[in-house]
Write a structure and sequence with these properties.
Elements lengths: L3 E11 L17 E10 L2 E7 H7 L5 E5 L5 E4 L1 E3 L11 H8 L4 H6 L4 H10 L2 H17 L2 E7 L6 H17 L3 E9 L10 H18 L5 E5 L7 H13 L3 E6 L6 H7 L4 E4 L5 H8 L4 E4 L1 H7 L6 H6 L4 E3 L13 H12 L3 H7 L2 H6 L16 E4 L5 H5 L8 E4 L2 E5 H4 L1
Bound molecules: zinc ion (ZN).
Amino acid sequence: MKKLKLIGPFKQLVTMTGLPLKGALSDEQLTIVEDAGILIEEGNIKAIGLFKNMVLNVDHTTTEITRLEGDHVCLPGFIDAHTHICFGGSRAKDYAMRNAGKTYLEIAKAGGGIWDTVTQTRKASTEELIKKIIKRTKQHLKNGVTTLEVKSGYGLSVTEELKMLRAIKSSNAQTPLDLIPTCLAAHMKPKDFMGTNTAYLKEISNTLFPILKEENLSNRIDAFIEESAFSKEEIRPYFEKAKEMDFDITVHADQFSTGGSAIAVEFGAISADHLEASTDKEIELLSKSNVIATALPGASLGLGCAFTPARKLLDAGCAVAIASDHNPGSAPMGDLLTQAAILQTFEKLSNAEVLAGITYRAAAALNVSDRGQLKEGLLADFVLFHTSDYHKILYNQGSFKPCMVFKNGALIFDKHKTS
Ligand SMILES: [Zn+2]
């Protein structure tokens, strides 16, 4: 086995380096290396440069050289910073009912809604959940995603949330993608919990939080702040406890009503996700903080609602990430690139803003600094498209798929071999 790998040439390699974390971006700010190569050592990028010079300079006895045929554009592996892909059952019937004009209550009465997913997820064994997660990660991988956040939140009891988070942890060991687990036990108070919202949150934080640490199941605590889920007042002691225990905090914020983003800022959350209902007041608050604003166009498309005001957020100086929110109820599509491309046309975003939203700004939304850009020392996670012009990627609105995906320097998806 040779120690080093050199791959290239790439007609364009978009590094996503040298860009600010916050605020608007123009395509002119992108660094594009032409006819580039990537030198990889033990899963990390050792160097980026002109492929033909690199071929001359590397030691051929220790370097395996892969020479690509045709034109390729190389981008950092995509990062989907918000998903709910650990679930049982399907909500296809709900989806049809909602589109046919049925109300939330009518759907719930017919046995649908989030409680249906909770019931089906509770029924599933750990092994069944692992199978489902792995199947869904393969779909994301084909779309160029190399790092995927996965939330719990359909178990809604200490035992069932543990089952979900253990399934996510096992899946991570069985898939080439990196799965980043988040505890969303505060998705809603389960129907079968007889106490108050506060009592439920107290039970979760007292009992579940220490086990998350012990078993290293998740370093991230999420909560759904909404009239139908938890209020600001109810969530404060929960987040205080999470902070005391050194968890990262992330929030489902301002989806239908405002309030969540203010809590995110108050608690120094890593990210505030959704924000479809955010007004100028919330946008200003977020812009003065270090909270990453994560847009979830998949939920807007699934619900037929307004998009997150990404343009306004960027112009106000926020860092905007874009994630799929892949879930069985409101965002069943699970195609980050398509959704990001659609958000781009509605919100008038530059290519740089969209690509940043699914690479280095998404990395920031997960509080990881070893990926999301192509530069020396970072993980060799990258995705290749069969074209000479990176503009074609978003221009095709997601129908143009990657031809190869590399994770830690290893080829983990090759379209030529699977199609
Ligand atoms: Zn969500």
